[in-house]
Amino acid sequence: MSKRCDLVLQDQDKLSVFPAFFRVVGAKVAVFGDGDEAYAKARLLRNTCAEITAFAPAPEADYAAFLSREAIAIDSRPFCPELLEGCSLVFGATGDNAKDRAIVEAARALKIPANAVDQPDYCDFYTPALVNRAPVAVAIGTEGVGPVLAQMIRADVDRLLPPSLGRLGRLANSYRAAVEKLVPRGAPRRLYWRSFFKGKVADAVEAGDVSAARREATRLLKGVVAEKQEGRIFLVGAGPGAEDLLTLRAHRLMMEADVIVYDALVPQAVVDMGRRDAERISVGKRKGCHSKSQSEINALLVELGQAGKRVVRLKSGDPLVFGRAGEEMSVLRDAGIAYEIVPGITSALAAAADFELPLTLRGVSSSLVFTTGHDLHGDVLPDWARLALSGATVAVYMGRSVAASVAERLMQGGLAPDTTVAVVENAGRASRTLLHGTLEELPGLEHREELKGPVMVIIGDAVAGANFALSQPLRMAANAAQETVRV
């Protein structure tokens, strides 16, 4: 594949345009054309304060009536480049492609952004489907490839936004100066506006009671000013790594955070779901690449909390399952810093879902164990291993490196070698790898260097009830890996 093709494939998820809003108060905008295309552009522009000039020698009846009703200036002169002088935006909407291209080329020569209807190569910008709640506007663009799709999305968004949203926005603008003067930047200000737009102020505006809305907004402002700014740490479970398995509460807090402190096992796509302006601090915490020790992380959280920051401490899976949350909570308690726990989907549950695997099964397994397997090095079997022998389902975290010791000790303890095991790399993600086999085949997993992501191993009689249709047998996978090495 050529380098050019590689670049195209890499950029498929990127926009070819930069969404922006032009400031058009007092700006001259030219629309060239007599028919429906020009009429549509003029209607769209009428949502703004632009000074529209319709260059229409012979406007069709409906368009002419609209121009007259809206008091839009009409210039009947045929096109020439001199007509573009002083324009800020230009629309070529004559219905004649050649004429529209000539209009755009003349505008470009004068450094004026221009748009030729239905000719993407002659568009310096695209006109969006617009939802108008002035001063709030939602513009939907498809880079010119799907106008009907844009209109469908516009209809959905239009239903979501209350008609009172514009009035609420104007009320917010009247409080902006006071908020900027009295409320500290960062979380306090964001929380004030969140309460303003989602609480009693918004309810009063929607009910048409602007006086009540003002009283509530003022009360809210006084409360924020009187409240001392204190730091708060949120120990948040990021789930197994898929963006759509992040909880709504976790996402809301990430959008309110001043700082996001995240582990290496949390994918960048999940971190990017946080507030754009939040500071992001990677602290590693992955086998073989600990960029910060746990004591350094503890000290960082205390420092940020004492500085009055709202911090999301983002951990893979659930913070209370092998996430060292206990150590962090203890340090925060000792420092007198407020914190909250936000649970996440732990990897064992995601792995079970990938396999459609019942972790508990009536008459087969009535208990479930989460473990890392690192406590198998002693002379005595740990309690969880004894539970496995009595029929419990065992989920082993970070299972690739301890697979051999887990299998050996369990078989020595009496667990049948043909006990079914399920293995998942990157549980819950689109990039997951599923393997299945028996306990005696499990030690080969330790040498599977191609499994770079976190690996979960589930062992027990209940595993036999899983769906292995999308899974590869461990023995076959091991043979394939050996063949690859020989080649």
Summarize the structure in words.
The chain is α/β, with parallel strands linked by helices and 487 residues long. Helices cover 38% and strands 17% of the residues. The chain is built from 17 helices and 18 strands. A 6-stranded mixed β-sheet has the order 13-14-17-15-16-18, with helices on both faces. The chain has a 5-stranded parallel β-sheet with strand order 3-2-1-4-5. α8 packs antiparallel against α9. The longest helix is centred in the middle third of the chain and has 18 residues. The N terminus and C terminus are likely disordered.
Secondary structure category: alpha/beta
How large is the radius of gyration?
31 Å
Task: Please describe the biggest sheet, giving its number of strands, its sense, and whether it closes into a barrel.
Answer: 6 strands, mixed
Arithmetic mean pLDDT = 88
Overall helicity = 25-40%
- End-to-end separation in angstroms reads 23 Å
Could you tell me the strand content as a percent range? 15-25%
Number of helices: 17
Strand adjacency order, main sheet: 13-14-17-15-16-18
How many distinct beta strands?
18
List low-confidence stretches. 1-9, 483-487
